[in-house]
Write a structure and sequence with these properties.
The protein is an alpha/beta fold and about 350 residues long. The chain contains ten helices and twelve strands. It has two domains: about 5-120 and about 315-335, Rossmann fold (3-Layer(aba) Sandwich); about 120-305, NAD(P)-binding Rossmann-like Domain (Rossmann fold), CATH 3.40.50. The strands form two sheets. A seven-stranded parallel β-sheet has the order 8-7-6-9-10-11-12, sandwiched between helices. Strands 2-1-3-4-5 form a five-stranded parallel β-sheet, with no helix packed on it. The two termini are about 40 Å apart. Mean pLDDT is about 95; it is low at about 1-5 and about 195-200.
Length: about 350
């Protein structure tokens, strides 16, 4: 074997590339030919196997060493990895990995990486759109137009708002940066003590003006914020974090914006808080049960804006997803640490 044929990384192919890579649909889209070509170039000689969201493969899985995973249910994911005895690394094309950190994956000791940073820019823009729409009173203005009523309304400038960001991963940092650039006071909580930039494409340093609090100071953030933005992962510790007690700590004039995971919020408690006037309003782009049923009572709750899990979408997201996966494929070949490796103990 020549030196060029030697295995550099954990893959069993020449130069440490994986023998085979399994690809499930990602981001509700089919792979473009250019995507498949880029993956093939990043892992020359690897066999690419397409796997449906139901777990049906168009080829054998016994030599698959890498899995690019889309929004698979946990049960389907477990069945796929059971058919891949040589699997070493799973890259999740989603930021949330609660459906990947299964007991079966833990038993196998699989390396897990995620798409942290891929969706930060469009989600941050969505959050700012909603803050601007509410503070500039867009819903009321549209209602006045439908009523053919000419009635100017007083708005609030961004510099007069305090935006609280719960979670300072790549999405939280992007939200904090945009809100700061509009002149808002930004306060944020984070679990980790490190001050480094979160990984992911287009990550930017946190503005110096952002006031960072420990996670234990969440009640202070809630009491001071005009808009509370949820940008934290779903873990056993954060599920139903926003229950009746925490919603009661918010200003009566405040709005809650959830662009993270639906199960962070106790939806029944939120509905009561909106109907009772405990808080002014809420924006939910992610819900406990999706898609939301047409007869759901949430559609009729006053001052509740519901959107169909669309904050992350943009024409650039798929490109960034493939960029990150191919970059990690190169690291995998060299046996180097992967970007966005998930800490199993933390759950993100």
């Amino acid at each position: 074997m020549t030196s060029s044929d030697a295995r550099a990384g954990p893959g069993s192919g020449l130069g440490g590339v994986p023998a085979a890579i399994a690809l499930t649909p990602i981001l509700s889209a089919r792979y473009r030919q250019v995507d498949l070509q880029r993956i093939a170039e990043a892992a020359p000689g690897s066999r690419l196997v397409s796997v449906s969201l139901e777990g049906l493969a168009d080829g054998p899985l016994d030599d698959v060493e890498v899995l690019l995973r889309g929004p698979l249910p946990a049960g389907v994911f477990d069945r796929i990895i059971a058919r891949c005895p040589d699997l070493a690394w799973v890259h999740s094309a989603t930021a949330g990995v609660e459906r990947v950190l299964t007991p079966a994956a833990a038993t196998r000791g699989l390396v897990i990486s995620n798409a942290r940073g891929v969706f930060s820019a469009p989600i941050a823009e969505y959050v700012l759109m909603m803050i601007l729409a509410v503070s500039r009173r867009l819903p009321q203005l549209l209602e006045l137009q439908r009523e053919r009523t000419w009635q100017p309304l007083e708005a609030i400038e961004m510099r007069d708002l305090t935006v609280g960001v719960v979670g300072l991963g790549s999405i939280g940092r992007a939200v904090a940066g945009l809100a700061s650039s509009f002149g808002s006071q930004v306060i944020a909580t984070r679990r980790r003590d490190d001050a480094g930039t979160a990984g992911g494409p287009d990550s930017k340093p946190l503005p110096d003006s952002v006031e960072v609090l420990a996670a234990e100071a969440l009640p202070e953030l809630l009491s001071r914020s005009d808009f509370v933005v949820l940008a934290l992962p779903l873990t056993p510790e954060t599920e139903d974090l926003f229950d009746e007690q925490r919603l009661s700590l918010m200003k009566a004039s405040a709005w809650l914006i959830n662009v993270a995971r639906g199960r962070l919020v106790d939806e029944r408690a939120l509905v009561r808080a909106l109907r009772d006037g405990t808080i002014r309003g809420a924006v939910l782009d992610t819900l406990r049960d999706e898609p939301l049923a047409p007869d759901s009572a949430l559609y009729d709750v006053p001052n509740l804006i519901v959107t169909p899990h669309t904050a992350w979408t943009s024409g650039r997201v798929l490109d960034r997803s493939i960029d990150l996966f191919c970059e990690n494929l190169a690291l995998f070949r060299r046996g180097e640490p992967l970007r966005n490796a998930v800490d199993r103990k933390l759950g993100y």
